[in-house]
Write a structure and sequence with these properties.
Protein name: Peptidoglycan-binding protein CsiV
Structural class: mainly beta
Order of helices and strands: HEEHEEEEEEEE
Keywords: Signal
Distance between the termini: 40 Å
Strand content: 35-45%
Strand order of the largest sheet: 2-3-1-10-9
Number of domains: 1
Largest sheet: 5 strands, antiparallel
InterPro entries: CsiV
Helix content: 10-25%
Radius of gyration: 21 Å
């Protein structure tokens, strides 16, 4: 009887000592949105949003909640020390680009219905949503608007970046538009 009890106790202790494993589909998603300071002067207008065009579906999107120091919960913002694209942001600034938004969040990405994340900047230059879904691959779906500065132009243009891009985790991805771009890193939560 004592041997059986000791074996059971040892099994319970081993289970408690094992590190917690992330659930399947748990990812950190980091996004860096930038533009050239010159806005691609001389380039023809591209993908300018027409007034009658449907804006991004921001009503259904959610802002990431602030990080509370505990294990991550769905759509919780990543703390600054977890962001990995800081060196890329510094290099872009040195090369004449302007960082419009840099942040990230935790998300359990499942097959099926996943929430959209609301992205906007305090100055109103970037507004829209990002959705991440999973099938055989991860699918990154930004629908963002860039508004040019009204102080610079009489009629400020709004440009739309609306794509669906298949991505692999743990790889840096670049999404391009003549007026702004994005670097994206999606990593499984460890």
């Amino acid at each position: 009887m004592t041997t059986r009890f000791n074996a059971l106790l040892l099994t319970l202790l081993m289970c408690c000592a094992l590190p917690a494993q992330a659930a399947e589909g748990d990812y950190t998603i980091e996004v860096l949105i930038f533009t050239q300071n010159t806005y691609g002067d001389g380039a023809l207008p591209y993908n300018a949003m027409e007034p009658e065009q449907t804006p991004p579906a921001i009503a259904e999107a959610r802002y990431p909640s602030p990080y509370d120091g505990a294990p991550f919960s769905q759509l919780e913002a990543l703390p600054r020390e977890r962001l990995v694209l800081g060196d890329d942001a510094s290099r872009l600034r040195r090369e004449g680009f302007q960082i419009l938004w840099h942040g990230g969040w935790f998300q359990n990405v499942s097959t099926g219905r996943n929430p959209s994340v609301r992205i906007d900047t305090a100055d109103g230059r970037v507004d829209g949503v990002i959705k991440v879904d999973r099938g055989r691959y991860l699918h990154f779906k930004p629908d963002l608007l860039l508004s040019r500065d009204a102080a610079v132009e009489a009629l400020p243009a709004r440009y739309r970046l609306q794509q669906s891009r298949r991505m692999r985790s743990e790889q840096l991805h670049y999404l391009d538009h003549p007026h702004f771009g994005m670097l994206v890193m999606i990593n499984p939560l460890d």
